[in-house]
Each structure stands twice: as C-alpha cells, then as structure tokens.
C-alpha cells in the first residue's frame, strides 16, 4: 500500500486540480469524508460536537465538517484556537458557516467557555494542524490541548493529530491523542512512524474524489507490504524442474556454543524452497547441527590454534562459495579476528548476493568501509542494537529515527537495509522504504532473527530480486509468527515454531498460483 510524504501528497492534490477538480471541492470532500466516517460509527443526533480549527486548510476541513455535522442533527461548536483562517479556501469554508446553527467561539477571547464546551462534548474533531505542521505546537495551544486530554469525548483527528509531524513522524511537543484519524486518499508517513503513529488511534483512509489512476501513478518512496505483493513474488515450480533450478545456498553460520543459530537458519532455508543448502560450520558442532537438520550438505571447517582456517577447509569453503547462488553470513558465527578477515574478504570479492546477519553485522560495524569495495547485492539485517553499533549511536536514537536512519544507511552504503523490530523497515539504496506490519511480540526471542535470515537467504538463492527476498521474507516470517501466537500464545511460541508454520503459508500461495518457485 502506497504511503505519501507531504510533498507527494500536495503533488497529488495539484494533479487532481490540473485534471479538473478545484481545491475547494477537495476540501469539501475532505470535510464530508470525516463526517461520513463519524456517521458510520456513531449516532450524531443531538450530540455535542466541538471542532477545533486552526488557521490553515486543516481548519478549512473542520469548517466543512462543522456545517455538515450540524445538518445531520449534531449541536456543533467551532473553536478558533489559532485565530481566523488565513488561506482563501479555508476563509470561503468559514464564510459558509454564516446562517447555520454552528456556534463559533474564538478561543483566546472565551477560553473558559471553550474549555467547558470541550469538557461537555461527545465528539472533538481535531482540525488544527494537518500536513502543514512542523516543530512543536505554540504555547497558546497548550490550554486547548489540555482540555481535550481531560475530556471524555471521542477524539477524531482530521488528516493527522495536531502536534505530530506528518512527514517525519516526530512529536516534539504537545500532541492531540486521537481515538481515530481520518486521512485522505492515501496514508502519509506520520501515520506509520512512531511516535506520531501512537497518537493516531485507528486510522481510516477516505477517498476525496481523486481518481484512482492519479493515485496509482503518484510517485512515492514508502509503502506498507501487503499479502498480495508478497504472493506475486512467487511463480509456478515447473513440473520438469530439478533441485538445481532452485538455487544453491551457502550458509557460513554457527560456532562453538552457537549451534542453534546454524540449525534454525538452515532449517528455515530448506523450508523456503531452496534446491540445495550447504552449511559451512566448525567440525565441533557438526554432529549436533546435522542431527537436527538432515536436508543440507555440510562443509566442515577445521581451524588451527590461531583461529585460521586450515588449508583443506579453506579450499573446501571457497569451492562451495564458488558454486553458490547466494550466501548467508553471520548467524551464530562469532567474531574472532580471523573470522572478521574472512567476512570482509567475502563482502569485498563476492559475485553472488550476500545476506549479512548477526555477528556478520558486528564485524561490519568495525569495518564499515569494506562495503565500498562490494560489487554484489548485499542485504544487512540488523536489530536496533546492531543498527546502533553500525551507526555508533544509541538504541534509543535509532528507535526514534527508524525510517530516516534506515534510508540514509541504505543510500550511503548501497545496501538493502532490513531494520528489524516492531514494524520492520526495509530500505533500498534508491530511497524506497517498505514497512512490514505482520509479526508480534512473541517473536522477540533469540533465534527469530536466524529464522528470518535463513528464509531471506533461501529466496535470494532461488534468484528472487534482493529487495523482494527481503520484503517477502520479513512479511512471511511475521505472518508465520502471527499464526504461532494464535495457536501457541506469544509467551510459549518458539522461533522453531515459526518455521513449522511456513508450510501453511506456502500452501496458500501455491493454491493461488498452483505450485511456485521464488521469482
Ligand atoms: N491542499 C489541498 O488541496 C487540501 C488540503 N487539505 C487539508 O489541508 C491540510 C494542509 O493544509 P495547510 O498546508 O494549510 O497546513 P495546516 O492546516 O496543516 O497547517 C498550516 C498552518 O499551521 C501553521 N504551523 C505550522 N507549524 C506550526 C507550529 N509549530 N506552530 C504554530 N503554527 C504552525 C502554519 O504556519 C500554517 O498557518 C491537510 O492536512 C488537509 O487537512 C484537504 O482540505 C484536502 C485538500
Ligand atoms: K488535525
């Protein structure tokens, strides 16, 4: 689903106007859409509705809603919280309140009356600021904001809760906490990015008469992954095919004490359809790993006292690497000096797509410039802690700038960056970002990341475009996690259960396309 930033949203409105609509018509439709939403949810007759209006076009939407709510039998008061309207269309909509039953109160002149109206209201419509807001709300607004917070009214934000930055999702000062937000034509960044997202309540996207061709063709740089997108990444598995047609994945994963990471990533990879999976691991953990996942082949690595790969192992590893169509580096790998050298060499010399996870990322954090030497597509899958290490900042800082930092990193280092956590983001070097909405807190357990990395690597090995492999794996991993939570509880579900839920998801994809292979 397409998500627009503020500029793109304005561009879309301009295109609608160029195609024959007027700004006034758009505003009328926006106000009407907010009221339509309210009528669907609530009875309005004789209810007290208070509309807080700002002086820009968001306020204009509020004036329209006030007129219509009054027509539908509500007792409506408009509170001008920031003075009189300043834009021409908002002024026009304000003038259309003349002769209606709508009461108009200038907040600064009658603050006590206004506060009483807010306190007695059944509904508060927040039409103070929309896409035009940035920074923090003026001091003069703190009192009405406070009155709204103390009221038991249902709060409906028009386009965006006032005080939240629609572009960045930042909330720098006070912000209206809405129960519902009605936005227009498409979602905007701020509806999805924390902290603004937390102030939106339930979000409804309402049409305002802009033709779907215009919406579909509007340039965008952010989208929410939907099931249909992911299903379209897979195609039919040919009846004539053999294992060689479904990729050769090499996993450089596992170390003493970290056998589980190798097991889970390899198991997830074979469950996701790869033709051949080869796990390169220290000989010491081979018995435990191979006894738990029997489908892969194994390349056993012997190390000397200094941690160097012995000659025979080195030759065997590079032979496997040269035969692979993708390589997963990092799950439970450890980060000794010699391992770090090997990882850097692979990043620098690889001709095949690489997924770098866990310790692979920790190694990169100390050798970030090696990315400049890479030729092949690289997908990095940091959790917020690893991202903080990559950026040499705090987890808190990462979490409050997720979209910005993921995008910047992907652009600067020419990688696909998968920033994990609630609402995993996938950022491409060209600036496009994808938000994932599947998954739940039951997945916040050691091992979930290994499963994800194995899934992604499997798709990549089968020839799926790197960004689709990332977006698809993140979506299906979360969807499988959601099924686990339903059947097993968030508390008790295990990362290995996520793998066991994958067959059900692939069955659905196959039923749609009658057998598939990753595209
Ligand atoms: N452009 C259009 O054609 C349409 C716009 N619509 C509405 O118009 C809104 C955008 O309107 P505007 O661009 O006029 O912007 P807003 O109405 O969101 O806010 C703009 C006003 O807020 C002020 N402002 C910004 N940051 C401030 C701060 N920190 N403290 C105090 N004041 C601040 C600005 O100076 C300006 O006066 C949308 O969110 C939507 O609700 C809808 O009517 C649909 C059509
Ligand atoms: K608003």
From TrEMBL:
Annotated residues for binding of AMP: 420-424, 449
Superkingdom of the organism of origin: Bacteria
UniProt-listed InterPro entries: Carbohydrate_kinase_pred_CS (IPR017953), CARKD (IPR000631), Nnr (IPR030677), Ribokinase-like (IPR029056), YjeF_N_dom (IPR004443), YjeF_N_dom_sf (IPR036652)
YjeF N-terminal domain location: 9-216
Cofactor(s) this protein requires: K(+); Mg(2+)
Cofactor note: Binds 1 potassium ion per subunit.
One Pfam family in the UniProt entry: YjeF_N
Keywords in alphabetical order: ATP-binding, Isomerase, Lyase, Metal-binding, Multifunctional enzyme, NAD, NADP, Nucleotide-binding, Potassium
Chain positions recorded as (6S)-NADPHX binding sites: 57-61, 130-136, 159, 261, 332, 383, 450
Subunit-level organization: Homotetramer.
Physiological role: Catalyzes the epimerization of the S- and R-forms of NAD(P)HX, a damaged form of NAD(P)H that is a result of enzymatic or heat-dependent hydration. This is a prerequisite for the S-specific NAD(P)H-hydrate dehydratase to allow the repair of both epimers of NAD(P)HX. Catalyzes the dehydration of the S-form of NAD(P)HX at the expense of ADP, which is converted to AMP. Together with NAD(P)HX epimerase, which catalyzes the epimerization of the S- and R-forms, the enzyme allows the repair of both epimers of NAD(P)HX, a damaged form of NAD(P)H that is a result of enzymatic or heat-dependent hydration.
Protein name (record): Bifunctional NAD(P)H-hydrate repair enzyme
């Amino acid at each position: 689903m397409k998500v627009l930033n503020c500029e793109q949203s304005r561009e879309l409105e301009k295109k609608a106007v160029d195609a024959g609509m007027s700004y006034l018509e758009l505003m009328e439709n926006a106000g009407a859409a907010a009221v339509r939403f309210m009528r669907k949810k609530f009875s309005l007759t004789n209810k007290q509705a208070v509309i807080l209006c700002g002086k820009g076009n968001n306020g204009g939407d509020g004036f329209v809603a006030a007129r219509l709510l009054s027509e539908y039998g509500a007792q409506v008061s408009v509170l001008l919280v920031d003075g009189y309207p300043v834009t021409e269309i908002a002024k026009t909509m304000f003038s259309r309140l003349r002769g209606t039953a709508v009461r108009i109160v200038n907040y600064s002149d009658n603050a006590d009356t206004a506060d009483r109206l807010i306190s007695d209201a059944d509904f508060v419509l927040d039409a103070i600021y929309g896409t035009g807001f940035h920074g923090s709300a003026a001091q003069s607004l703190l009192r009405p904001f406070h009155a709204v917070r103390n009221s038991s009214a249902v709060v409906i934000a028009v386009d965006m809760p006032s005080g939240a930055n629609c572009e960045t999702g930042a909330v720098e000062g006070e912000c209206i906490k809405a129960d519902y937000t009605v936005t227009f034509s498409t979602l905007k960044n701020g509806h999805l990015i924390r902290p603004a997202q937390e102030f939106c309540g339930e979000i409804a996207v309402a049409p305002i008469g802009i033709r779907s061709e215009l919406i579909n063709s509007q340039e965008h740089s952010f989208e929410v992954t939907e099931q249909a997108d992911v299903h379209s990444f897979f195609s039919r598995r040919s009846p004539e095919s053999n294992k060689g047609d479904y990729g050769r994945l090499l996993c450089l994963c596992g170390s003493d004490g970290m056998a589980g990471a190798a097991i889970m990533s390899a198991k997830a990879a074979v469950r996701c359809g790869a033709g051949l999976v080869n796990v390169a691991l220290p000989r010491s953990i081979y018995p435990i790993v191979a006894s738990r996942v029997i489908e892969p082949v194994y390349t056993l690595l012997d190390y000397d006292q200094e941690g160097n790969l012995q000659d025979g192992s080195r030759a065997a590893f590079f032979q496997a690497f040269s035969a692979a169509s993708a390589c997963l580096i990092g799950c439970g790998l450890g980060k000794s000096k010699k391992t770090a050298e090997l990882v850097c060499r692979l990043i620098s010399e690889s001709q095949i797509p690489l997924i770098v996870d866990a310790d692979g990322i920790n190694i990169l954090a100390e050798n970030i410039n090696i990315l400049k030497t890479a030729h092949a597509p690289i997908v990095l899958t940091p959790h917020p802690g690893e991202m903080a290490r990559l950026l040499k900042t705090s987890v808190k800082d990462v979490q409050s700038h997720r979209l910005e930092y993921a995008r910047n990193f992907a652009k600067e280092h020419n990688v696909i960056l998968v920033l994990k956590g609630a609402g995993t983001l996938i950022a491409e070097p060209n600036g496009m970002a994808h938000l994932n909405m599947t998954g739940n807190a039951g997945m916040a357990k050691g091992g979930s990341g290994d499963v994800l990395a194995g899934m992604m690597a499997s798709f990549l090995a089968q020839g799926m475009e790197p960004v689709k492999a990332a977006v698809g794996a993140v979506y299906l991993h979360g969807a499988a996690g959601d099924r686990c939570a339903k059947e097993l509880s968030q508390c008790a579900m295990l990362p290995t259960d996520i793998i066991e839920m994958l067959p059900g998801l692939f069955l659905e994809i196959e039923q749609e396309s009658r057998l598939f292979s990753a595209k």
